[in-house]
Each structure stands twice: as C-alpha cells, then as structure tokens.
Amino acid sequence: MLPSDMVGGVSATRAANLEASGHALDKFVGQVDEVLGALEKSAGNPTKVSAQTIRSTSLTSGAESVFPEAHGLYKQYTRVHHELTTLSKTLHLQIEAIGIAVHGAHKGFDSLEEEQRQRFWAIQTEIKELRDEKHGNGEQTGTGY
Fold this sequence. Notes:
Blueprint: E1 6-7, E2 10-11, H1 12-18, H2 22-41, H3 46-51, H4 68-107, H5 114-136
Antiparallel strand pairs: 1-2
Helix pairs in contact: 2-4, 4-5
C-alpha cells in the first residue's frame, strides 16, 4: 500500500517540486538565449573559429623532406582546427536546440510554430551528421556525441 501522500509513485511534495512553472521555464529560455547570443559575439562563434586557418606555406615553403617538422605541425594544426570548429558548431546547435526544447516543454511541442519544430529536427539531423562524420573518420571517442 502506498503512503497517503504518494501520487503516481511520487510523493505530492516531490511532484510539486518537479513541476516546472511557466515563469521558471521562461527564465531558463531567456538564459539559454543569452548564452547563445554571447557565443555568437565571441571568438567561439563557429564562423569565426572556422575562419582561423593558416596555409602550409606560412610554416615552410620547402618540401616535406626538407622540414618534416613544419609539415607535421601544419597537419596537427589542421586536425585540431577541424575538431575545434566541429565542437563550436555542435555547442552552438545544442544550445539552440535546448532553447527550442525548453520552450516546447513549457508551451507543448505541438504549440510550437512549424518553423521552430522544423528547426529543432534540422538541428538534430545536423548534429547526427557531425557525429557520424567524426566517427566515420576513425576517431572514436567516449564522449557520446
């Protein structure tokens, strides 16, 4: 027998604590929007990160056999730059999706504008493609994204 204060397997007090108020969700959406706006203006913006490239001739103009260390450095820079660009893009997309999801949790996913629902699913597809590209290159990690 369940105690008298249990509702659906959760105490009434705990259920009340889990209930998200409209005000709290609106505040959280505002915070997510602020973070997304700050990221857009920062050096971590995916467009700014991807623009920070160098040419191999910036390090050496000789053949790889003449200065292999410079070519190795360029290859590592290019690899790390690609990883940072992907990370920045994924972070940006995740924050945007969280904003839409929280808004949907508050108002109901069915009450979201069609454009928002389509954007949410487009974000999920893009994140999956980024993840698949990363794992397709043989760079398996334990990060789960």
